[in-house]
Amino acid sequence: MTAEMRAATKLTISYAVFALIATSANIGAQDLVLRIYSGAFDILASFIAGTGVGLVVKYILDKRYIFRFRAYSVAHDTKTFALYTVMGVATTVIFWGFEFGFHYIFETKEMRYLGGVIGLAIGYMTKYNLDKRYVFRTDTA
Known about the structure:
By secondary structure, the protein is mostly helical. It contains four helices and no strands.
């Protein structure tokens, strides 16, 4: 195995582990919201909270360990996070589509979370390519 292949394998494993961490944070936040709030919009509130927590966790891990990105200033970091968030909109549609779909079809918490995990896995694979190409580009400041 060449050094380049080893580096690619390490990056893939790291990205998968960080995706699992962010997925766990997302699902954990959803579960916490549902334990605290059981009103008319409980599922939606849990999706929003989970998405927000997962987004922040994943940004911090990706920025530091996957793309080794260093912002030049708070404004630059804020702009980068905003672009990271925009790139996440399409992947969030995938994630929510699976989670809402599983919720509608199976009507159980466990299957809803399984749908969320599947949607997040597909979304994260897509998001890596978007982030590499548009967010954490090395040729821009």
